[in-house]
Specification:
Pfam families: QIL1. The protein is an all-alpha fold and 118 residues long. It is 79% helix and 0% strand. The protein has 3 domains: 31 residues; 38 residues, no CATH class; 34 residues. The longest helix is centred in the last third of the chain and has 32 residues. The protein is elongated. It starts with a helix and ends with a helix.
């Protein structure tokens, strides 16, 4: 009976975390335009550190453990819109030149093999 209850609790916790993440993405729209993403990042920078501190204080009170002070989160000094989709652009450019590069490398390899077998 206990393993069933424990597995149900794990499922409910995982489902709650996943549902919360989906709701957060829907509500804050961090995958939308860059100005909304920047606003969501700034809001997270303001809200998350106090929440983590408050939770750690609660855990300390309940368990009697001492949790060391966490270092301050790093500050990002760049705008998201400058780097928005830069990874996608790099991957697509690499994929677009992949056939010609593969042909070039295979030609070089073939020439190398011809030279070595003579």
């Amino acid at each position: 009976m206990v393993p069933r209850v424990w597995s149900l609790m794990r499922f409910l916790i995982k489902g709650s975390v996943a549902g919360g993440a989906i709701y957060l993405v829907y509500d804050q729209d961090p995958l939308g335009p860059s100005d909304k993403s920047q606003a969501a990042l700034q809001k997270a920078e303001e809200v998350v550190p106090p929440a983590v501190y408050q939770f750690s204080q609660y855990v300390c009170e309940q368990t009697g453990l001492k949790i060391p002070q966490l270092p301050a989160p790093p500050k990002f000094n760049f705008h998201i819109r400058d780097y928005w989709n830069s990874g996608v652009i790099k991957v697509m450019s690499a994929l677009s030149v992949a056939p010609s590069k593969a042909r070039e490398y295979s030609k070089e390899g073939w020439e190398y093999l011809k030279e070595r077998t003579k």
